[in-house]
Amino acid sequence: MKVNEKRKIFGLTMTRRAWNNVLVYAILIIMVVFWYVAPPVKEEAEQGIKDEAAPGEVIGLIPDDGNLREIQIDELRLVLEEQKWRCQNPCRLSEKAAESVVENWLALTMEPTSQTAENLITDVYFRFAGGEEARVELYAESELIIRLPNQQQSFRVKEFTASQLLGH
User: Which UniProt keywords apply (predicted)?
Assistant: First the structure.
């Protein structure tokens, strides 16, 4: 065995291969300890989603923090200008009807449902202050259903019809 093949760390002299084995086993032990001490976050996140969407719990869609700046439903764009909601040209809604549609979206409440979302009506885009954007899918079943993209949970709309939310 050559001299340059041995390494001395903390007073222990071992070959490079022996030190590599020590490091591998030490890392494996650390991984096992962390696996049992702090389980993966995925399980906790799934549990949090289930807790948030408890059956029968009524929740709102848009937070009432005043950050909503624009709603886009197909070609219809409703924009907040000078503290007043206005419809961008071309517009099929009157000023009062445009404000009514926005108020309906802001007041919308919903509850989780196990019903599958079928018969897509349209996608609705919400733009907030700071450049944030959200999209929801509106479905027509025997009742009105909202689904957030990339989520498995659907929500049943309470107290509003599709025509009230779409301005028809």
Answer: Membrane, Transmembrane, Transmembrane helix
One-letter amino acid identity for 154?
Answer: S
Q: Which of 73, 50, 34 is nearest to 153 (CA)?
A: 50
Q: Model confidence at 46, in pLDDT bands (50, 70, 90)? A: low
- Give, in order, the Cα–Cα distances in Å from 2 to each of 12, 14, 90, 105, 116: 17, 12, 84, 77, 70
Identify the three-state secondary structure at position 124: strand
pLDDT digits (tens, 9 = 90+) for 109-159: 889 888 877 888 889 998 988 888 888 888 887 788 888 877 777 888 888
Tokens of 86: 């206005």
Domain ranges of the chain: 3-37, 49-166
